[in-house]
Design a protein that fits this description.
Strands 1, 2, 3, 4, 5, 6, 7 and 8 form an eight-stranded mixed sheet that branches. Helices cover 33% and strands 27% of the residues. By secondary structure, it is of the alpha+beta class. Strand 7 and strand 8 form a beta hairpin. The chain is built from five helices and eight strands; from the N terminus they run E-H-H-E-E-H-E-H-E-H-E-E-E. It has a single domain, classed as Aminopeptidase (3-Layer(aba) Sandwich), CATH 3.40.630.
Amino acid sequence: MGDVITIGLLSEEDKEATRNVLVASYEQFRDSYTNIEDYYTYIGEIKESLDNPNLDRVLVAKSGEEILGTLQLFLSSELAYGRPEIEIHAPIVRLLGVHPSARGKGIARKLLAESIDYAKQLGANSLYLHTTDKMSDAIRLYEGLGFKRDQEKEFLKYDFLVKCYRFDIESV
């Protein structure tokens, strides 16, 4: 793996490798599910996520031709989650994942920086994402980048509270 990491848009030929990176990056949470069937359902959703017609774009981080990380962007809570009642009408990051062998290289930070730049290009006031307490390393990263908790936009999925974090563009 080289040192140069590039961020670009998902291509059709990279879809399967990106799917594999996503699955590998979320496997670590298997034991946090009280109902293992919920975990398998979630992994199934992750596998299908790259074929979601509501996606605005998928970013991939690469070293050469190797996919190291990815994230998905949607333009509203209705498109991202099928939940218009959350009332987010701004870009939303979903399924940020970095392959376990590539962690600690700033890949997630680069993917999020590119997402913030994209939200600015769209003229959005905020960029949102949702996470759970089981993703404590990710939460530290989000808070370190300036994301703030927005409890009004949270919901329950399986037996987890899905916490909302918002990055305010005008604060940049």
